[in-house]
Design goal:
With 325 residues, this protein is α+β, with helices and mostly antiparallel strands. It is built from ten helices and six strands. A six-stranded mixed beta sheet has the order 1-2-3-4-5-6, sandwiched between helices.
């Protein structure tokens, strides 16, 4: 397969997304009864796009280059939203998933507790994460994760398209759905080079994980993980697996506490030692958010399920720290 052939899916996806955005704008114009309001909305949109272009940082441009997408205003806005946001970009797809089946009520046990109040009530089992919020757990199996990520991204795009035409009640709704669709378009393009965006709960807080995998050589691979804990807290890790040994650097940026960072490092070491040798795991704090440690240029497919497992073990360490906080 030539490089040009490999790039075709990413290139073909963009006209489709552009056509969708144009169609949504056409619908918005048609349903708007007030011509003055429509002109004002278009003026606001244009100004926001100009601001997006002027404020676009190098990370956003680099992201679009990695996905072989143009640096249009819409794409730049989507790239920035992916970098700094915490909302679940797959939320529309999750809405359409069938509800999880509930366990049947044990009538006899219920009657026994009513007859004997002194009997200790059973602790309810914690609700298992489902849908896109559980995607990160699939990293244990590379093939399963890659397949499900692709499927949920595609179904999310379809769900957003349907919702734009059936549920949008205002120009603001259309605008948000367009941005969501464009974010999914960028995410789908980046997935071709093993770069993923995942929702993940840390305690009861929804965070966004930015995961990138790359192979430096036959023996060495790298996992880069960014976690948006909030607008003011960002966690970043660079983990290397080389001949069965894991090394890593953890960066706590913004208001991430040093103790929290060390607890995550300790959790990761403890979990990782069950599968690999663990070398130096260092922690570094920074008051400001640092540029993402992502390699640019040509991507070499990892073809390594072990690297995906390293990513899963690290995210598990982050979750466990959040549960104990």
């Amino acid at each position: 397969q030539t490089a040009a052939q490999a790039a075709e899916p990413g290139i073909a996806a963009e006209p489709v997304a552009e056509a969708f955005v144009k169609a949504a704008n056409d619908v918005l114009t048609e349903v708007s009864a007030d011509e003055k309001a429509t002109k004002e909305y278009n003026k606001t949109q244009l100004e926001e796009q100009r601001q997006a272009v002027s404020a676009a940082d190098q990370e956003s441009v680099a992201m679009l280059q990695r996905g072989e997408l143009s640096s249009s205003a819409d794409n730049l806005m989507a790239a920035q939203a992916l970098t700094y946001g915490t909302e679940n970009i797959f939320a529309f797809s999750d809405r359409n998933r069938p509800a999880a089946k509930k366990e049947p009520v044990d009538i006899m046990a219920l009657l026994a507790r009513k007859a004997n109040p002194e009997l200790a009530a059973e602790e309810p089992e914690p609700q298992e994460e489902t849908g896109s919020a559980a995607l990160w757990k699939k990293l244990e199996n590379m093939e399963e994760f890659v397949t499900e990520y692709g499927e949920i991204t595609e179904s999310s795009m379809e769900s957003v398209e349907e919702a734009t035409f059936s549920e949008a009640d205002s120009s603001m709704d259309v605008k948000q759905m367009q941005l969501n669709h464009k974010q999914l378009t960028v995410a789908a393009a980046l997935a071709k080079r093993e770069e993923y965006y995942l929702p993940m709960y840390v305690g009861d807080r929804l965070t966004r994980v930015h995961l990138t995998l790359d192979r430096a050589s036959q023996e060495k691979g790298t996992v880069t993980v960014g976690v948006n804990l909030s607008q003011e807290e960002h966690l970043q890790a660079r983990l290397t697996l080389n001949n069965g040994t894991v090394h890593g650097m953890l960066f706590g940026e913004g208001k991430v506490e040093v103790m929290k960072l060390q607890q995550i490092a300790d959790n990761f070491r403890k979990e990782a030692e069950g599968s690999w040798n663990v070398g130096n795991i260092s922690t570094i704090s920074s008051e400001k958010r640092m540029p993402e440690l992502i390699k640019s240029g040509k991507h070499t497919p990892t073809e390594s399920a072990e690297l995906y497992r390293v990513a899963k073990v690290f995210l598990q360490a982050v979750v466990r720290q959040g549960e104990s906080a």
